[in-house]
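To illustrate the input format used throughout this study, we show a single complete record. The first block contains the structure-token representation of the backbone; no residue identities are included at this stage. The design step must infer an amino acid for every position from geometry alone.
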């Protein structure tokens, strides 16, 4: 069934299915797990803490490492699962569109007035779904940069920027267009972080500057 769309139906009949994969990915990606986890644990509204972001880095600022870890895993899974399911059912292009939808859902969740997270964990989940070795290498890049610089945003930016390179070296280039697009979006969501990095005022992991 992996050649079901659009090879069998043809583009003129496949587009509703493709749109459905995009919207299905968006629906899962828009679930604000950071907000749900912190509320469930009685930690308050994460949007009123630190940067106001709903991602794992800001959840960590509540002081609850378990909540941050849960948010990281769940945000990653909501990028991973749509890609894997849509690819298994309909083929690679629907899988890529589902991943794009999940990423956009995290950045622009309808439930929060289209104000979501910065997309790093969901991006890594999508990358794992597309090509798990590239996802693993990107995560290892994040860990290496974090160990050296102790700055989460720098680690995220370098890891994201490395992803197209890993795909190219692994000869997994079918989804290169999608990964480059998501990397550009991640740099856009990190505009303020980049400015602080250049000014030398970006906080380090653990709160140190």
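Output of the design step:
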């Amino acid at each position: 069934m992996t050649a079901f769309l659009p090879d069998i139906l043809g583009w003129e009949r496949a587009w509703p299915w493709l749109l459905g994969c995009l919207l299905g990915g968006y629906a899962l990606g828009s679930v604000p797990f950071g907000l749900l986890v912190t509320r469930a644990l009685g930690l308050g509204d994460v949007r009123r803490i630190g940067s106001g972001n709903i991602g794992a880095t800001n959840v960590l600022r509540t002081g609850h490492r378990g909540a941050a870890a849960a948010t990281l895993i769940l945000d990653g899974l909501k990028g991973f699962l749509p890609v894997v399911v849509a690819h298994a059912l309909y083929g690679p292009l629907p899988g890529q569109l589902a991943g794009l939808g999940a990423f956009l859902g995290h950045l622009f969740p309808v439930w929060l007035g289209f104000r979501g997270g910065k997309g790093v964990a969901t991006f890594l989940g999508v990358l794992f779904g597309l090509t798990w070795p590239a996802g693993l290498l990107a995560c290892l890049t994040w860990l290496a940069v974090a160990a050296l610089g102790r700055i989460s945003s720098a680690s995220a930016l370098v890891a994201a920027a490395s992803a197209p390179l890993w795909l190219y070296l692994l000869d997994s280039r079918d989804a290169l267009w999608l990964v480059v697009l998501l990397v550009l979006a991640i740099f856009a969501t990190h505009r303020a972080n980049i400015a602080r990095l250049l000014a030398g005022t970006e906080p380090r992991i653990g709160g140190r500057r």
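Structural context for interpreting the output: The longest helix spans residues 65-90. The chain has one domain: 4-199.
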